[in-house]
Amino acid sequence: MTAPTVTSQNRRPVTESSERFLRDIVSNVTLERLDELHLFTALRQGVYETGVAVIAVSPETGERSESTRHTVYTARYRLVVKGPDRGRWEFECVAEADAPLITVETVVRGVQRRSGDLDDPVRYDTASLAHVLRLELPEALVSDALPDEAPESAEAAHDALPGDALPGDDDSESQNPDALPGDDDSESHNPDVLQ
Questions:
Q1: Residues near 40 by Cβ (< 8 Å), separated by ≥ 6?
Q2: 99-138 tens-digit pLDDT
Q3: What percent of the chain has a predicted confidence (pLDDT) above 90?
Q4: What are the extents of the domains in the chain?
């Protein structure tokens, strides 16, 4: 599994209905085996809100490579937002195909084209999905999420994605790349400038 792709999209909080949708997906598809989840923008039409996601799940063997065939699921929800049935929730998650992970992007583009959605779907991997849903990252995936330094527990890895400060990192001082060892001031030393 590759390191999580952290973007402002897959780290921001989701709407209540999107969170419910993602939690239903995780209850149907094991988080440990989920490689990618592409969440499309929810649509509101009349009294309904609907949403779609495309999910790539690795095989049970645990083998993960570019050529490994993944089960591709399509998940849908339909929420009644107005009227006497307000709050009624319908959810389905169906295995549609087996394909290499690289093919999933083609499937996502096809769904996007057919829906007429101009916005790209938000892409989640296991770590970013666990973060958004405030779930503990599975122990088996902790070392995959942080290959350089494994945290003390899965709970510590939950929030420690690439680019985040890890315990032991010293962010109290800003590092000046032009500073010489032993310099206590924050001025940069440029040999072309006389002082």
A1: 51, 52, 53, 54, 111, 112, 115, 117, 121
A2: 988 888 888 988 888 888 778 899 999 999 999 999 988 7
A3: 44
A4: 8-135
For residues 182 and 186, give the distance between their C-alpha atoms in angstroms, rounded to a whole number: 11
Quote the tokens at residue 189.
Answer: 């030393």
Query: What are the tens digits of pLDDT across the range 31-72?
Result: 989 999 999 999 999 999 999 999 999 988 766 666 788 999
The phi, psi pair for 17, rounded to 5°, reads -70, -35
| Token pair of 56 as six digits | 């790539």
Measure CA 46 to chain center.
Answer: 30
